[in-house]
Amino acid sequence: GGIITQTPKFLIGQEGQKLTLKCQQNFNHDTMYWYRQDSGKGLRLIYYSITENDLQKGDLSEGYDASREKKSSFSLTVTSAQKNEMAVFLCASSIWGETLYFGSGTRLTVL
Amino acid sequence: LAKTTQPPSMEAYEGQEVNVSCSHTNIATSEYIYWYRQVPHQGPQFIIQGYKDYVVNEVASLFISADRKLSTLSLPWVSLRDAAVYYCIVTGNPGNTRKLIFGLGTTLQVQP
After folding, report:
1. Which residue among A38, A54, A57, A103 sits deepest, i.e. has the most Cβ atoms within 10 Å of its Cβ?
2. What is the CATH number of the domain that holds A87?
């Protein structure tokens, strides 16, 4: 079996700060995803990548950048953190056409 | 993509069988039904998928109505560990997993 590792588990930032979240997978999956989960709301897709150096925008890409420099890693950058923002960012990976495997998430708090 | 409707919450006692329903009245012929669940402080985890009739695995079973507009996830003998949010998702052929849409799901509470 494999695992998805998200770092950091908790991230506290200041308003206007650029913040980077990292995700590593050892499944050797080609597709990776970043979702955002707010309290009381479902998961919303921010970015996904079907292969190394590929980036595809999801429904919530504004305010975020992503980077897929290696097959095993996918990074997400919050370009300017919003005051009082609180959310969980979930990374996932999959083989083409197969089910998604998720990490445990990074919990963001902006002061 | 077909929209799904699930009850927002359910309660059960340990040892009971739990059936979680999902309505997808606009499901297209190319779409499949997926179920995931999410426990606190974890990401969602795949449970089962199906296209029609009846599917069973070691964790759960999935019944899909003949017109495919309703599916029911069945969890036999639930335990406290089964307390989670259960998501029903309908999407195109399995090659379109990148378009999975997770709604609010059904929150299952399990009492001892």
Report:
1. A103
2. 2.60.40.10
